[in-house]
Amino acid sequence: MPTVETVLGPVDTADLGPTYMHEHVFVLTPDVQQNFPDEWGDEEERVADAVTKLSALAASGVRTIVDPTVIGLGRYIPRIQRVAEQVLDLNIVVATGCYTYQDVPMFFHYRTPEVRTLLGMEEPEPMVAMFTADITDGIAGTGVRAGMLKCAIDTPGLTPGVERVMRAVAKSHLATGCPITVHTHPGTRQGLDVQRVMAEEGVDPGRVVLGHSGDTTDVDHLSALATAGFWLGMDRFGINVETTFEARADTVVELCAQGFTDRMVLAHDAACYIDWIEPDALAVLPQWNYLHIQAEVLPYLREKGVTEDQITAMLVDNPRRFFDGG
Ligand SMILES: [Zn+2]
Q: How do residues 277-309 score in pLDDT, each as one tens digit?
């Protein structure tokens, strides 16, 4: 039986159930939070708030979320364990990797493969050693193993830092078999850069989700990547700033009509708490929450002719196939 690592241990892929492939629990800036803790407020209240929000998500029928919160996004697994232990009917898959649009974090800036090779170290790229250990040994002594690898590429494109992380993620995937999710900016067609780097590294596109694919309505671009074997993350429902609810949903409808139901996965990219945004500013995104897909997106898709089988494919079968190995 193929299994997926979750916060509370391995789960059979057949038991994942309805799965949102990209939801955060917390997105934080630890360096700022450690020095300006008033913003975060009371730890107990934050944990209780997350338990409430994720319990409501589980009550909506969702059984699994993948939380791609990695270095650069404030990953802290002991807090996620506290939450997971109180929401037992929701599996939480956590991730390893590094989130940057430009440079590697300063931690890695001078710890280069060249320096480490000169020092005679076995694995020249420190990120490969760290990501691989998160997957095989567990994260920071918690015993929780990462079930997903994550990197990012955005409007600055394939900068040297972005490429270094992406290749480290690819190598960690090849060493462990752990699948990959990539934050992309499809408006500038960076899936093509991902495609080239992953091909050079020998990664099967069937092991890679191109996250945030739903940020574009460029169906030709998305269908080409899906045809190449990538998974399309239609995973930002509710973030209707540069797009609209209808544009996001209609893109899914169109891709379903064109035969790409079996290449799409769904999510909101929501969080219980994200310190990147002034809390009052979130009022402009009333649909950006864990319940939006069930409450509003799925009814809209059904109205537009997407069948129950197609919805089950995107929510249940595709995540299972992805974790089974593409
Ligand atoms: Zn995200």
A: 998 999 999 999 999 999 999 999 999 999 999
Question: What is the 249 CA–ligand 1 centroid distance (Å)?
Answer: 19
Nearest to 325 by CA among 247, 254, 229: 229
Q: How far is the CA of 299 from the centre of ligand 1 (A)?
A: 24
Question: Do the beta carbons of residue 264 and residue 314 sit within 8 Å?
Answer: yes
96 CA → ligand 1 middle, Å = 13
Portion of the chain with pLDDT greater than 70, in percent: 100
Q: How far apart are CA 200 and CA 96, in angstroms?
A: 22
Ligand 1 centre to CA of 68 (Å) is 6
Between the CA of 122 and the centroid of ligand 1 the distance, in Å, is 32
Structure confidence at residue 310 as a pLDDT band (50, 70, 90): very high
Ligand 1 geometric centre to CA of 297 (Å):
19
pLDDT band of residue 1 (cuts 50, 70, 90) is confident
pLDDT tens for each residue of 8-23: 999 999 999 999 999 9
Cα distance between residue 135 and residue 128, in whole Å: 11
- Using the predicted structure, report yes or no on whether residue 326 has a pLDDT greater than 90: no
Q: Please give the distance, rounded to the nearest whole angstrom, from the Cα atom of residue 174 to the centre of ligand 1.
A: 23
Q: How far is the centre of ligand 1, averaged over its atoms, from the C-alpha of 151 (Å)? A: 10
Q: What does the alpha-carbon distance between residue 50 and residue 84 come to, in Å, rounded to a whole number?
A: 10
Q: For 176-190, what is the mean pLDDT?
A: 97
Structure token digits, residue 41 = 């407020």
Degrees, nearest 5: CA angle 17-21-26: 115
DSSP for 198-259, written as a single string: HHHHT--GGGEEEETGGG---HHHHHHHHHTTPEEEE--TT--SSS-HHHHHHHHHHHHHTT
